[in-house]
Amino acid sequence: MSEQNKELSRRVLEDLFGAGRMEIADEALAPEAIGHDPALPEPTRGPEGLKAAATGYRTGFPDLTISVEAQLAEGDSVCTRWTAVGTNTGEFWGIAPTGKQATVTGITIDRIASGKIVESWTNWDALGLMQQLGVVPAATTA
Amino acid sequence: MLEFPQPTHLPCPECGASVARAEHGTHECDDERRLDFLVFQLREEVGLFDRELSAWLETPAGRFAEWLAAHLRRDA
Questions:
Q1: Which chain B residue has its CA at the smallest distance from A125's CA?
Q2: Quick one: closest CA in B to A90, which residue?
Q3: Cβ separation of B18 and A142 shorter than 8 Å?
Q4: Burial class of residue B69 (count of CB atoms within 10 Å of its CB; 0-12, 13-18, 19+)
Q5: A142 vs B25: CB contact, 8 Å cut-off?
Q6: B11–A100 C-beta distance less than 8 A
Q7: Within 13 A of A10's CA, how many CA atoms are on the CB side?
Q8: Which of A86, A108, A119, B59 makes the best surface tag, with the fewest CB within 10 Å?
Q9: ipTM of this model?
Q10: Strand pairing class (B9-11; A116-124)
Q11: CA nearest A127 in B: which residue?
């Protein structure tokens, strides 16, 4: 079961967010699923909420790819460490496109019931993204 | 003392590629990516040029220039 749960979490990250296959939200999420991402103004609700969030990220970074680096499963939960890479060629959070490529890491914990994700908590390096886009100062390299 | 957090990667200022901070000294830009990045930065100017060229091609002088170019191409 834990391997199936890991695969479910991987598909949402790599195939939905990372490849734009929005239909996966309907297969992988329960209708009442809630997603918590502190970078978003409010929790996402259900498959449509997740699609909207993914669309927002993919609008800013149309070539976004996500790679799963490691997964741990325990009970009904899966913890996934991931890396996202994308080029900012679309408007994102009100920021005009920069053309810059960015790399960020994050961790998502999914809770799964009856083969569907019912709740997710994600924390990722939003500050690092803003620094890479030049919105927040970062120390320059030699 | 804690320092302000820094990202593990930063975009190359020349080509925009995401480069690990430790590799910034050895990074070599891909020519195609650098060109794409420069053109992207100039997208407003490129768009303006395209709009102005399209508008000019609708003028009598522009239509004649287009006809002449096609004529010369046929004879080449």
A1: B7
A2: B40
A3: no
A4: exposed
A5: yes
A6: yes
A7: 13
A8: B59
A9: 0.78
A10: unpaired
A11: B7
Residues of B with CB under 8 A from a CB of A: 5-11, 16-18, 20-21, 24-25, 36-37, 40-41
Residues of B in contact with A66 (CB under 8 A): none
> What are A69's two structure tokens?
């680096």
Per-residue pLDDT of chain A (142 residues; tens, 9 = 90+): 789 999 999 999 999 999 999 999 999 999 999 999 999 999 999 999 999 999 999 999 999 999 999 999 999 999 999 999 999 999 999 999 999 999 999 999 999 999 999 999 999 999 999 999 999 888 754 4
What does the H/E/C string look like for chain A? CHHHHHHHHHHHHHHHHCCCCCCHHHHHEEEEEEEECCCCCCCEEHHHHHHHHHHHHHHHCCCCEEEEEEEEEECCEEEEEEEEEEECCCCECCECCCCCEEEEEEEEEEEEECCEEEEEEEEECHHHHHHHHCCCCCCCCC
CB count within 10 Å of CB A48 equals 14
User: How many other CB atoms are found less than 10 A from the CB of residue A84?
Assistant: 22
Q: Do B40 and A131 touch (CB under 8 A)?
A: no
The predicted-structure confidence for B24-73, as pLDDT tens digits, reads as follows 889 999 999 999 999 999 999 999 999 999 999 999 999 999 999 999 99
Locate the chain A residue with the closest alpha carbon to B7: A128
